[in-house]
Amino acid sequence: MSKLLEGKVALVTGASSGIGEATALCLAEAGATVAISARRAERLAGLVQQIEALGGKALAIPGDMAVEADARNAVARTVAAFGRIDILVNSAGIMQAGGIENCDTETYRQVMDINLMGTVYTCAEAVPHMLAQGVGDIVTISSLAGRKGGPMTSAYSASKHAVNFMTDGMRQELGGRNIRVATLMPGATETEVAGGIKDPNWRTAIAAHVSKDGAVKPRDIGETIVFMMAMPRRANISEITVRPTIDTTA
Predict the structure, then answer these.
(1) pLDDT tens digits, residue range 81-96?
(2) 121 among known catalytic residues
(3) How confident is the model at residue 149 (pLDDT cuts 50, 70, 90)?
(4) First-last CA distance in the chain
(5) How confident is the model at residue 207 (pLDDT cuts 50, 70, 90)?
(6) Of the candidates 10, 107, 120, 148, which lies 20 to 30 Å from 58 by C-alpha distance?
């Protein structure tokens, strides 16, 4: 991959695995300096080593994006270390089953806190820096679930639907000042998302969904983000879906 993003500084949340990890690697390979944040500090340390082995530069910032202070700190430390923030990729997120019968309202709060509010926190901290710089890019990893609901998906789908519309609102608010904002909605992608699901039946179903033949690889998403970032400033790919070729229903 050529150095399309040389001189850029990126922050990727949820970078300890899956889409976030792959995106950080792809951005680094494209020449960006990368700050990475997630709860699992040991995984972040390993990712920093991978990036440095490629000749890149990276900074690990452990934190929980559901905690406002941690989310804002990830942005602040990025700017303190590298002087700016050109790219923010909001990849931190969780999935839990969430139906209304015997509803566990705490599950809804947990999903909203990380998927929606975690994105709000990082954006709120990053946007003033991007406005001062006169340039910036924000990419939020959503899901095709944000377009449709279903049994047991209402908590997750509601959070991603909210993220989609919040992100597009930011696009309209900030586009006139050279900040591009985009929503990326993956279909079935090979990640560890099922591992944290509490409901055993839903955990099994999602594990099968993301590991099925032809599922998208996390690197496919990372390379898509590099492509988006490399577009001329006049072009904002504001919404993009990446789904398995063979799954025509997703």
Answers:
(1) 999 999 999 999 988 8
(2) no
(3) confident
(4) 29
(5) confident
(6) 120
Cβ neighbours of 50 (radius 10 Å): 14
105: number of Cβ within 10 Å: 9
Number of CB atoms found within 10 A of residue 80's CB: 10
- Helix, strand, or coil here: 209? helix
Which residues have a Cβ under 8 Å from the Cβ of 84 and sit 6 or more positions away? Answer: 9, 129, 133
Question: Judging by beta carbons within 10 Å of its beta carbon (0-12, 13-18, 19+), is residue 176 exposed, middle or buried?
Answer: exposed
- C-alpha distances (whole Å) from 28 to each of 21, 32, 51, 183 are 11, 5, 7, 21
Half-sphere exposure of 221 (CA within 13 A, CB side): 34
Q: Could you tell me which residues are beta bridge partners of residue 35? A: 11, 59
Asked if 146 and 185 touch (Cβ cutoff 8 Å), the reply is: yes
Q: Where are the domains of the chain?
A: 9-242
User: Rounded CA gap, 221 and 144, in Å?
Assistant: 14
**Alpha-carbon distance 214 to 229, whole Å?**
26
pLDDT at 2: 63
The domain defined by 9-242 folds into Rossmann fold (3.40.50)
pTM of the entire predicted model: 0.93
Alpha-carbon distance of 37 to 202, in angstroms, equals 27
